[in-house]
Amino acid sequence: MFRVVLCLRIHAGREQEFERVWAANTAAVADHPANLGQFLARSADSESTYYIGSDWVDEPGFREFENSREHVEHRQKLHPYRSHGSIRMMRAVPGLVG
Question: Which residues form the ABM domain (predicted)?
Fold first, then answer.
């Protein structure tokens, strides 16, 4: 499995609107055949910091989505809310189930 985690700083006062727009446009990611799921989380330390995580079958599947028209359109809908962001990509290793 290949995991992608975005850390986004949202313009102050636009957090609730960002959450609504993200939720309304999740199909752009979820409908891709290589996508295994995604989540949105807000930092406990900052009202304006969010994490978007998505899991993929493999890195080539993610890269296919990353270069797709659907990704560009999805990103354009979220871009007005962010002041800056970063991305981390990782390969899953064995974990524990609680």
Answer: 2-90
